[in-house]
Automatic annotation (TrEMBL):
Single GO MF descriptor: lyase activity
A Pfam family reported for this protein in Swiss-Prot or TrEMBL: Alginate_lyase
Source organism of the structure: Sphingomonas gilva
This protein's UniProt keywords: Lyase, Periplasm, Signal
Domain of life according to the entry: Bacteria
PANTHER family noted in UniProt: HEPARIN-SULFATE LYASE (PTHR39210)
Name of the protein this chain belongs to: Alginate lyase
GO CC terms, sorted: periplasmic space
InterPro entries, per the entry: Alginate_lyase_dom, Chondroitin_lyas, Hepar_II_III_C
């Protein structure tokens, strides 16, 4: 029996591997010292041992079944689609298990699967289920082919040294070289794009180049097909991330794109350390990882743009991201994220995470209020995150003042979200899609993604004349980004101020959002001042999408109890049922809902004559593609300038188990707004007798002094926002 047919673990396994012919043919993607450490220490640290056991269980189960490499037929979620996904995971897992354990059976299985692909792949043309995506061959879109290549080349790299020259030639000529050519020279419109699809293609082709010793493939992956540097992986790093590590398409796609960025960067570091890839552009790859983590609440990514709300840090991309970033930085805060994830990856970096976690080196990740600039130069708006504290249940306010986000972006400038008690309170719909559920249009984006989810009325920002920002035209929206005017994430009053001109012709919008700690109130208040100015009269709608059950309103409603009118005919309005309307008098504009045992009162000061509409998504949805979610809309007609002042107050507690209710009524006695000099003055009075005055200056420069006369009192402050407590 050869050494490779027995289970090799610990030091003995490492020594046998080192003495074998494999030592002279080490993988290209993993440094030799990392291989030795994984082989000798695999069972020593619980998190890594757990990953080895998980991989063993998955691969061993697959090895009991016949190899299945089907002719591609189905779109996302279909039988053949899912089988090819399982296959690349098994190829990668088997290859790494071979290197870790030394058991030849794993190499044999990965080899046999790749030989089957070598027989299948040369005869494939464009995928039969291709739609409006760039067609792949194994999958309905070439993106998935790129993912297959990124994963499978890692498995092949691990076993390549154990194969005969003939086996290598068959696999490389049958699968890896033609797939690399198809994804690069054969798909220039994808490969040379500045987009996550190109990132995956660049990574797969470049890693294949390193494994096959093909410098041409590597250079094309790094610098674009013509090797000019105008496209390719390095250009992606230049243009897709802001200087703060914010990814153009938003947190959800930052998560998705992160894996090819970090695994290819690791391959570059292993093969071309002189490039200093982890130092490139002031360490942008590593910034991208920590920024992605910051853009979460309770571990879940903020679901702006085309996003699914159920994606968290417990995902393959972030297992890689955390491991690679820790390997490069040894930042102990990343260990606490790995601990929360409960996972790592079968790489030397994953081993380092497990080793240092076992040694007790983890420290809390430094979540904080952050401003992440958008755009390659940081001048295309920003994502503003205001945190009331560091606990998972503490309130988090997110102001989306970012650029369009390319094709996955939504038409909603100056939009905001709120989380509290680990729950979404002021919500974002995200994408209209059931990912990989074949019954729902093959897992693709649904028609309602265009007609509802991307439209402005589906978000918490101002809508003019029942049309979406930029008339929902991508090329127009890509030309205009908001301006982040001011931000403060510290102290008892934290704020974000931004504006945009160009979302509507002749209309300028500015929004100030403040998270305000008030003595005597258990939770921070959120103050929202949304202003619009125009030379022409318009209909202005300001929606607030919320999660919870409506408890009461402070004004009378005209409810539609037998029929439900539809709010409009287009631009998302056709998907809203109107449940009730009302015209609140001053001090009556409140709506209260209940969410996870806490009450939330939304207090409105809309422009004079405004109507309030209570509505729900789901109209004109014959296939039940949309979630049914409530929204409250403030509407004013025939106004040139309009100022909407709102206050969101968390309060009280309902304990269903104990059948007790405390503080279900608002603790706010009054909310008022006045214009004084060059500032908006918002006054909040609590029932406990406290008064908080917030002054929002038109001039948002940091060092400018302001003053305003309010009720016979002179207010003086410096900077964009002043606060005065009584």
């Amino acid at each position: 029996m050869t050494p490779f047919r027995v289970a090799l673990t610990g030091v003995a396994g490492a020594l046998l591997l080192a003495a074998s012919p494999l030592a002279a043919q080490a993988p290209a993607l993993i440094p030799p010292q990392g291989l030795a450490a994984m082989a000798s220490e695999a069972g020593r640290y619980p998190l890594f041992a757990q990953e080895v056991a998980r991989a063993r269980a998955e691969v061993d189960a697959a090895m009991k079944r016949p190899i299945d490499v089907p002719v591609p037929r189905d779109p996302g979620g279909g039988v053949t689609h899912e089988q090819h996904k399982r296959n690349y995971k098994i190829i990668r897992g088997a290859g790494l298990l071979f290197r870790i354990t030394g058991e030849r059976r794993y190499a044999d299985h990965a080899r046999d699967m790749l030989l089957a692909y070598a027989r299948l792949y040369p005869g494939l043309g464009p995928h039969p289920a291709r739609a409006n995506q760039n067609a792949g061959r194994l999958f309905w879109q070439s993106l998935n082919d790129s993912v297959w290549l990124v994963e499978a080349i890692q498995g092949y790299d691990a076993i390549r040294g154990a194969l005969t020259p003939a086996e290598r030639k068959t696999i490389e000529d049958g699968v890896f070289r033609p797939m690399a050519r198809f994804l690069s020279d054969g798909s220039p419109h994808v490969f040379n794009r500045i987009h996550n699809h190109a990132t995956w293609a660049n990574a797969g082709v470049g890693m294949t180049g390193y494994v096959l010793g093909d410098k041409d493939l590597v250079e094309k992956a790094l610098l674009g097909l013509d090797k000019s540097g105008k496209a390719g992986f390095l250009r992606q790093l230049d243009l897709l991330f802001s200087p703060d590590g914010y990814y153009a398409e938003g947190p959800y796609y930052q998560r998705y794109a992160l894996q090819p960025f970090v695994v290819f960067a690791s391959a570059i570091q292993a093969n071309d350390p002189g490039r200093k890839i982890f130092e490139y552009r002031d360490g942008i790859v590593l910034k991208a990882v920590t920024t992605a983590i910051q853009m979460t609440h309770g571990g879940y990514f903020f679901p702006i743009n085309d996003a699914m709300p159920d994606k968290s840090l417990k995902t393959e991309e972030l297992y890689y991201g955390v491991a690679v970033a820790y390997g490069a930085t040894r930042d102990p805060g990343l260990l606490s994220i790995a601990q929360w994830q409960g996972r790592t990856v079968l790489t030397p970096d994953g081993l380092a995470v497990a080793r240092d976690l076992a040694a007790g080196k983890a420290k809390p990740f430094p979540f904080a209020s952050k401003l992440f600039r958008d755009g390659p130069e940081g001048d295309q708006g920003a994502l503003a995150i205001l945190r009331a504290g560091l606990d998972a249940d503490d309130q988090v306010l997110v102001a989306k003042n970012t650029s369009q986000g390319m094709g996955h972006g939504h038409f909603d400038k100056l939009h905001w979200l709120l989380y509290d008690q680990g729950q979404p309170i002021v919500t974002d719909y995200g994408a209209a899609r059931f990912l990989n559920i074949e019954a729902k249009d093959g897992g693709r984006y649904l028609p309602e993604n265009d007609s509802w989810a991307q439209q402005t009325i589906a978000h918490n920002t101002l809508v003019v004349d029942e049309t979406s920002h930029f008339d929902a035209k991508l090329k127009t929206a890509e030309k205009v980004a908001p301006t982040q005017l001011a931000f403060n994430g510290e102290g008892p009053t934290r704020w974000s101020v931004a504006e945009v001109a160009g979302a509507y012709k002749g209309v300028r919008m500015r929004r100030a959002l403040a998270q305000v700690d008030v003595e005597g109130l258990a939770q921070p208040l959120v103050v929202d001042v949304m202003k619009a100015s125009s030379d022409a009269a318009h209909r202005y709608d300001l929606p607030l999408h919320y999660a919870g059950h409506l408890i009461e309103t402070g004004f009378d409603l005209q409810s539609n109890v037998t029929t439900r009118p539809v709010l409009g005919k287009a631009n998302g309005y056709q998907h809203l049922w109107v449940d009730a309307t009302g015209r609140p008098a001053v001090d009556e504009g409140t709506v209260t809902w209940l969410n996870h045992g806490r009450f939330y009162t939304y207090r409105m000061l809309p422009p004079k004559g405004a109507e309030v509409i209570l509505a729900e998504s789901g109209a004109n949805d014959p296939r039940f593609n949309l979630r049914r979610e409530p929204v409250v809309i403030q509407r004013v007609d025939g106004a040139r300038d309009a100022t909407f002042v709102s206050l969101l107050e968390p309060h009280g507690r309902y304990d269903a188990a104990a059948e007790t209710t405390v503080g279900s009524k608002s603790g706010i006695a009054g909310l008022s707004h006045a214009r004084a000099g060059a500032a908006d003055i918002v006054t909040i009075r609590t029932k406990a007798g406290r008064t908080v005055v917030l002054a929002f200056a038109d001039n948002t420069a940091a060092g400018v002094a302001h003053n305003a006369q309010v009720g016979g009192r002179t207010l003086e402050w410096t900077g964009p926002v002043g606060r005065f407590d009584q």
